Every structure is written in C-alpha cells, then in structure tokens.
Fold this sequence. Notes:
alpha/beta; 7-stranded parallel sheet
Amino acid sequence: MNLELSGRVALVGGASQGIGYAIAHLLASEGAQVAMVARKEEPLAEAARRIAQETGAVTHAIPADIRKAADCERITHEALARFGHIDVLVNNDGAPPLGELETFDDLAWSRAVEQNLMSVVRLCRGALPSMRAGGWGRIVNITALSALQPIPRFGLSVATWAGVFGFSKTLSLETAASGITVNTICPGRIETSRLGTVFGSGSPGAIDQDELARMAAAIPMQRVGSPQEIAGLVGFLASPWSAYMTGCVLHVDGGRRASLI
C-alpha cells in the first residue's frame, strides 16, 4: 500500500532509537520529510543520518528535552523553520520512573506530568496552527498498554497517560472538521531497550532469554512485538487512508489485553 506521504512533513519524538526510530524510518521510507527529536545529540544525529542514507528522505535532527516548556516551543519552531509546515506529529518519549505510588513526592509527580502530559499539550499547540492552515493533520500519541490495563509500580505513567487520553479525545472533537485526526496507540511488550530497564536488571537492553521466554508465554501470540509493528500502525494513522478514524485508543499487544473493548 502506498501511504501517500510524499511531500508531508512529520515530527517524531524519541526518534534516536526503539519505537521512535522505527516510526521515523517508516515515514521517511514512505516519502515524508522527518524532523527527529531526542535528548541526546550524537545518537540522534547518527539516527537522522542513517535514515536519510537508507531512505533518501530529508531528515532533520532537533536535540531537545520535551520535559521542558521552552524546548517544546523550540522543537515546533525549528521544524517549521526547516520545512515550512508540519503535517504529522508523533508524540513519543520514554516514561517516568517505576515505584509504589506512595513513595513519590510532588516533584516526581510534577516531572511525570511534564514528560507524559504537558509535552503532548505543548507540541500539539505548536503544530496545530500549521495543520489548520493546511486543512490536514495527523496527531498520533504513543503511550503503553499499562495505561489501559494498570499494573503495580507503573502509576506515574498510568495516571499521566490517562490525562493524554482525555486531552486527545477532546482535541479530536475540536479538530475533526479541520481535517485533523488525533489517535493514541498503547503498545504492549515491544522488544526495545526499555524491556531491560523495566523487566530485566534495570539496565537498558539487559533482559535474559529466560525472562523473555516467560514474557512471551503470557502473550497469546507467544512473542513480544517489534518496533516496526508499532511503526506500521503509525504509518497508517499518519496517512490519508485513516481519514475517518479519530479519537481512537488502539492497543497493539499480541492479544494480551484482557477486555472486550
């Protein structure tokens, strides 16, 4: 399927690795120009260079910390200055620390809100005028299955991503008539370095094969997912083919979510 993204400009967060990198790579391979955001400058620059080389697309690296209001404003300003417009916004980043809710102080909560919720609010606010002017836009938020099916110690993410659901659904109603869609994806277990951080030794990527096998056994498909499988759905949601879908929350989890809807 041709996703008809040639000439479109996409802004993708967390794009130096994992799910964000896979999304940026797929959108670039479909003809989009891609502004890539991540905190660490050197890995991001290398990721942007590699995608440009492999796809022939124009990429632009924007090192920034989405937890900071000034950086969120700079991200959209720089993308607009480089490409002239923003058609696709993919809000994707890491996640706040894990732990029992009663152990987190106000500062931890404030940081979680800045990272998971306010970054989405600010980046949408920065991209929407361009989308409205063009009469077309796609906003895709990446959260996690735990936001739909909470598990212990993930409370900072669950609570703040619940805010993203509310924000996104309301925004979808306010932008639908302008040709702008807003959808949210909740990935399940995906094979990225975060698996090791959360379920392994606590170090990125450090998860042994026995633990990976136990994890896969709890998934109906009997395997963890790949970043490319999340990217494929983002590509569809970013395309004209998804024009009648907005306000949706979609779980991509190998069948793991225990719910009828």
